[in-house]
From TrEMBL:
Residues in PPM-type phosphatase domain copies: 180-382
Pfam family, one: SpoIIE
Name of the protein in its database record: Serine phosphatase RsbU, regulator of sigma subunit
Transmembrane intervals: none
InterPro entries: GAF, GAF-like_dom_sf, PPM-type-like_dom_sf, PPM-type_phosphatase-like_dom
């Protein structure tokens, strides 16, 4: 059994209890629901006498009693828990969460740990109907839980090397007739872990943004590796390039958990046609000339996690008309935008300032805050 006093102290030291919802954690819960097809998902932190849900889908509230909860059992035993049919398991059959609301039948969870290794919560998926849960499912849930852990601990100082930071930035931005392109990156500390790239070849603008999950030299090198992998063999489609980077990153990391969210896309500069593949990133938008937003949502797992399932990646397509702007950013931008209306703030900034001015404003805000995470953003506007 765990040392409860030490566990509670570790949880409180993370300073995440009773904090607002976080889009970076929310997108993992959305992805878990999408991957497993369950009605309920939760990132639950086990406080002294309650569960605080940092993120949840389908549970209807951000708090619940700790007593009798399946998540409390998972944390106290510090091990993954899979219950395929709670009503058929003696230990859980009389549990109030089974006999009463929400009449739980299926539960699967992975412990979430503090930086010191203490179990502080769970990533869990739930259903009111029994279901089977095989080894591949457990591996995927374990990977998603690792991603949540990295997000919850993101405020620790990055330990990247200066040479790595320099390598993550393109020497200069391409000049494309009929388009305005602006991009910049601001490190949270002395060094950065985001990377972006924009290259023009034969009338096609290929752009990449990747964000290595976690802290330290390992994630930094994963970002460098991702850029190198995606930049080679430019004749590949964006889907082929992402798939190959995914396989290579899986081989590179061994037993380590090195995940990279990424966007890799082509813009046909003559027609404005966009072909985009998203690896767990979910932060690419089109701001139309009429002021409406279109989000090109995440549909795939991050690089380094995709080999856990046999699902084929599928590109998303749209078209930039004259006056439209494509915006892609790292999740650090979320920390410096208006929490109540981030889209409105972006739209107003781009209305008042051109893409160069808007990107410069993002960098200014990141330096002013200072932002707790790296901020990378680029804007591509089709002028005609």
């Amino acid at each position: 059994m765990i040392d409860e006093a030490r566990r509670q102290a570790a949880l409180e030291a993370m300073n995440i209890l009773d904090t607002p919802a976080d889009e970076r954690v929310d997108r993992v819960t959305r992805l878990a629901q999408q991957m497993f097809g369950v009605p309920m998902v939760s990132v639950s932190l086990i406080d002294r006498d309650r569960q605080f849900r940092k993120s949840e889908i389908g549970l209807g509230g951000r708090e619940a009693p700790r007593k009798d909860s399946f998540c409390d059992y998972t944390v106290r035993h510090d091990a993954a828990l899979v219950v395929e049919d709670a009503s058929a398991v003696e230990l859980f059959a009389d549990n109030p969460f089974v006999t009463g609301d929400p009449k739980l039948r299926f539960y699967a969870a992975q412990p979430l740990r503090a930086p010191g290794g203490e179990p502080v919560g769970t990533l869990c998926i739930l259903d009111t109907a029994p279901r089977s849960f095989g080894e591949a499912d457990q591996a995927l849930l374990r990977d998603l839980a690792s991603w949540v852990q990295l997000e919850l601990a993101r405020d620790q100082e990055l330990g990247h090397a200066a040479l790595v930071q320099h390598a993550l930035r393109p020497a200069e931005l391409p000049r494309v007739p009929g388009y305005t392109i602006a991009a910049a990156s601001q490190a949270a500390g002395r060094l950065a872990g985001d990377m972006y790239d924009l290259v023009l070849r034969d009338g096609v603008l290929r752009f990449t943004l990747a964000d290595a999950m976690g802290k330290g030299i390992g994630p930094a090198m994963a970002a460098v590796f991702t850029r190198a992998s995606l930049a080679t063999a430019p004749g590949r489609s964006v889907v082929e390039a992402i798939d190959e980077a995914d396989v290579l990153l899986e081989c590179l990391q061994g037993d380590a958990s090195l995940f990279v969210t990424a966007v890799h896309a082509d813009i046909d500069t003559a027609s404005g046609a966009v072909e985009l593949v998203d690896a767990g990133h979910g932060l690419t938008f089109v701001l139309r000339a009429d002021g409406t937003f279109e989000q090109l949502r995440s549909t795939g797992l991050p690089l380094g996690m995709g080999a856990a399932i046999a699902e084929e990646r599928v590109a998303t397509r749209t078209v930039l008309a004259p006056g439209d702007m494509l915006i892609c950013c790292s999740d650090g931008l979320l920390d410096i935008l208006d929490e109540q209306d981030p889209f409105g703030q972006v739209a107003e900034t781009l209305k008042v300032l051109d893409p160069d001015g808007a990107v410069a404003e993002a960098v200014r805000l990141a330096r002013l805050a200072p932002a707790p995470d790296d901020v990378t953003v680029f804007v591509i506007r089709r002028d005609r």
